[in-house]
Amino acid sequence: MEASHDLLRLIGGRVGAQRAALGLSLEATAARSGVSRAMVSRIERGEVHASAVVLDRLCAGLGISLSTLFAREAVAALPLRRHAEQPVWHDPATGYARREVAPAGTGSPVRIVEIAFPAGAEITFDRNPRRVIDQHLWLLEGELEVKAAGAVHRLAAGDCLHMHVADGNSFRNVGGRPARYAVILAVEPLP
Questions:
Q1: What is the pLDDT of residue 113?
Q2: What integer pLDDT is reported at residue 190 of this predicted model?
Q3: pTM above 0.85, yes or no
Q4: Is it the case that residue 28 has pLDDT exceeding 80?
Q5: Are both 172 and 105 inside the same structural domain?
Q6: pLDDT, the chain, mean
Q7: Distances in Å between the alpha carbon of 117 and those of 14, 16, 61?
Q8: Predicted confidence band at 164 (pLDDT cuts at 50, 70, 90)?
Q9: Do the domain assignments include residue 78?
């Protein structure tokens, strides 16, 4: 439970720092992101476990990726991040788990995230042309239906789909068991 609170504080600190770096008020952040001023404030204080959709909207308004939001600071760039050291965040709305796999602080523009997506789960991320993130989704287990750039793709284990975050994407687990996939993405530069 303490690790979850630590992650909420990390997320809140990151949101607050990015908002300050951009010189945005709570009101301006709410207007840019579509997330209420009260919710932005509660997230910054680490008081709420916001859903992936809410955090994605907030990140879009701040010009950062979800991976940037969840990334742990590395004291020294180590080329190895053991499984036990990889931070995991759980979406309270869908139950999906997001694990930051790639070592932090290496200077690499590539991030690797593992997603465990429950059977029947569905999530839609809004279109946002301000963010240009190139990503590949590599389905390791299960079945997914992905809507990206106006097309619907049905993926089976082993399939890999390239997409852009700016397009807005929907994910639906169409199988009867959890799906597990890797997202490999190139992190966009901060504005």
A1: 94
A2: 43
A3: no
A4: yes
A5: yes
A6: 87
A7: 25, 29, 25
A8: confident
A9: no
Task: Tell me what the mean pLDDT of segment 24-50 comes to.
Answer: 93
Q: Hunting for tokens 């788990």 — which residue is that?
A: 97
Burial 31-53 (b: 16+ CB within 10 A, else e): ebbebeeebbbebbebebbbebb
| Helix, strand or coil, per DSSP, at residue 43 | helix
C-alpha 7/C-alpha 29 separation (Å) is 21
CATH number at residue 49: 1.10.260.40
- Strand-pairing partners, residue 114, are 99, 182
Same domain, 42 and 124: no
How far apart CA 28 and CA 175 sit, in angstroms, is 41
The span from the CA of 52 to the CA of 60, in Å, is 12
**Which of 174, 35, 155, 191 lies closest to 183 in space, CA to CA?**
155
Tokens of 103: 């070592």
Pair (171, 107) in one structural domain: yes
